[in-house]
Amino acid sequence: MDPTPAYPIEKTYEAFLHRELSVSWLVLATLMGGRHRIDPGLIGRGFQYLDFGCGHGLNLLFNAAAHPEASFYGVDLNPTHIAAATTKAQELGLTNAHFALADLTAFAGGLPSRGPCRDWPESYDVVVAHGVASWVGAEVRTALIAAASELLRPGGIFYCSYNTYPGWLSRSTLQMLSVEESLRAGGSTSLAGIRKSAETLSRLTGTEDQDWPLGQELPGLRTLAARLEPMPEGYLVGEFQPAHQPLYVGPMHRLCGAHGLTYIGSATLPEMFPELLDPQRGSQVMEAVDLPMREVLQDLAINQTFRRDLFGKGPCPPTRQWRRQAMTDLLLHLGVAADDDAEAFPTSLGLLAIEPEFMRALKGALADGPQSVGWILDQSALEPQDLLMRLSILIGAGVIGAGFCREDGADGLKHSIAAFNQRCLDQITAGEEIGALLSPVLHQPVTISPLESFFLQVADSGLPPEGVAQMVWMGITMAGGSVKDPEGQPIEDPDQALGQLQEFWDSFASGRLPVLRRLGIGA
């Protein structure tokens, strides 16, 4: 594999939405981390947001719809991505989202004086780079970090996510073999080649009765094929290309530090609280002599595969009083997974449990509407840090949602987001892969399936269940689609298809629809 690839642009990538790129989520994570003072009032004011490696631009577009008072800018070197993002912005009626085909190395010294970005703002409140750092060679990676530092205003935040070791050690073996398979097949990395390579590696680990050397060194390879099974094809094909270079946290943080960027926390909320680890691992992590070593040890303790790091340019640690006030004004809502009965939740730190009594009390308090963190603190008698640790798990799992109150222009924003969501619904039901709608409560995307989108379009029709099913069936047929059985096979018989749709509507109307309404979607 080429050790210093520039940009992997020979393929386009699927458009994925990540809640962690939402401005509201980044502000929340910064507040919960407690190492940098960022005013929650940023939400509701004009600010500048820059996305390096924006891809198809969906994350930037959802942010632009959530914050019409702000301006959003996206850069990518793939012309297909930029063309798609620009078209999508026009189709969704967004005038505050701007895209340009540009090489991010041109930004290393500040805003370029030539090219399509020359009239863009010279500084930004938020700069994000999702996955880019582990997709480029060392020289370009350095240029990326330099550009983020040059363009961030003092006090701004930089989100930088990347695949990392030690979790990618076994996956790198799969990456190597997948690349070899693709070279011998005369093409680029393919899903078939990745699956074949995973199965080959599993066999080369030996058997349960007798480990071979590879299995002794990397036992995780034996189950890697099964773990890859549910992952989307586009994701897998992208992750296992030769340009992909996972990083260790220590060198990455030193690189950022050399350019004046200070680590202030993680957008993966539970990872900011090593106290959530079991006592054996947690004690070793907490014995670290400083924060950088603690991050190194925590990655080793959890076999970290992907980091979502937050850096500040000129971090300003908040006072305890300021942080408490900022957090107490935060509004908590029942989230998309609030109806689940789980009491333990999978996280990157492992399976983390929440006390049933606390869960019942919190859900009961939010059942009639949102409550502030301050009110929850007063009612629970918990220390703020203890409450934040619990909330980091529940917000991460989607049981609880966190939003910031916006008094000014709230009605106008609600209407503009409703119009944006309707345009998204029209596109989704026409076959576009958007995959989410925007919650005006959380100012974040909420996942929605194509079939749910069809039903949401007619949810207020007032028709009986059989009439709703008939309308959806007509819509799917007109869009050139088909109703599928639980195994994913098209249903040919119209009566059977209508029965399947009516059954889905009954479940959707009583379960998922109230959740969407609660988050302001389709209300």
The computed structural class is: alpha/beta
Total strand count, please?
A: 14
Specify the overall morphology.
globular
CATH architecture of the largest domain: 3-Layer(aba) Sandwich
Q: Topology, please?
A:
Blueprint: H1 23-33, E1 48-52, H2 58-66, E2 71-76, H3 79-91, E3 97-101, E4 124-130, H4 138-151, E5 152-163, H5 169-184, H6 191-204, H7 213-217, H8 224-228, H9 233-239, H10 249-258, E6 261-266, H11 279-286, H12 291-302, E7 306-313, H13 320-328, E8 331-334, E9 344-347, E10 350-353, H14 356-366, E11 371-372, H15 373-380, H16 384-396, E12 400-403, H17 410-429, E13 436-439, E14 444-447, H18 450-457, H19 465-478, H20 494-510, H21 512-518
Parallel strand pairs: 1-2, 1-4, 2-3, 4-5
Antiparallel strand pairs: 5-7, 6-7, 8-11, 8-12, 9-10, 13-14
Helix pairs in contact: 5-6, 11-12, 13-15, 17-18, 19-20
